[in-house]
Amino acid sequence: MGAMRISLRSDEMLDDQREVLNYWASLKRDGALPRRADFKPAAIVRRLPTISLVDVDLSGEGFRYRLAGTGLREAFSQDLTGRALEQEDWRAIYRDIAASAAPASGYMPLLRKDRPSLVQAWLRLPLADDDGRVTTILGYDRFIPLQRKMTAAPADLPSWEGAIAALAADVFQPRQATI
After folding, report:
1. CA triple 167-139-165, angle to 5 deg
2. Residue 70 DSSP class
3. Taking the model in full, what pTM does it have?
4. Domains of the chain with bracketed CATH
5. Is the separation of the CB atoms in 52 and 72 below 8 Å?
6. Alpha-carbon torsion angle 64, 3, 145, 117, nearest 10
7. Of 21, 28, 27, 80, which Cα lies nearest the Cα of 49?
8. What is the pLDDT of residues 142-169, one digit of tens each?
9. What is the pLDDT of residues 81-106, one digit of tens each?
10. How far apart are CA 19 and CA 15, in angstroms?
């Protein structure tokens, strides 16, 4: 999957990520997790193309895309709706979110042969059932194009931490999310 950086620092988020995070936080009641029933897609309609809803099975080990926006299909060249989450790195992140009931965000490279490579800025937010169990994880992704196409994955990839830091200096504006 490549290098990945995980945090939940709002000063490292894009404005649209903060918008989704702030909407999620506005759904909290008395400090409890937002309920899946309270999530209204129309409230973040501009973000729907790269929104996903992933169901968490009762064991907290299985994950399946209930919904994946058209922007995700474009980025991954496949429709994820109805598919099980299979990549172990992502499964570990989803397990942590389900177990901790805490949001997470990060950045990772998407190296794609014969297509422009991307940096995926991702945000994952837990949603609960009426009993407070995490049953759904709301995802929001933003794909930032890199300048060149990769004809083959190089044997020795550059430091993505350095690439993301350089990108952050140009793109991200320090702001605080209200949680």
Report:
1. 15
2. H
3. 0.77
4. 5-171 (3.30.450.20)
5. yes
6. -90
7. 80
8. 999 876 554 555 444 444 455 444 444 4
9. 999 999 898 999 999 999 999 999 98
10. 6
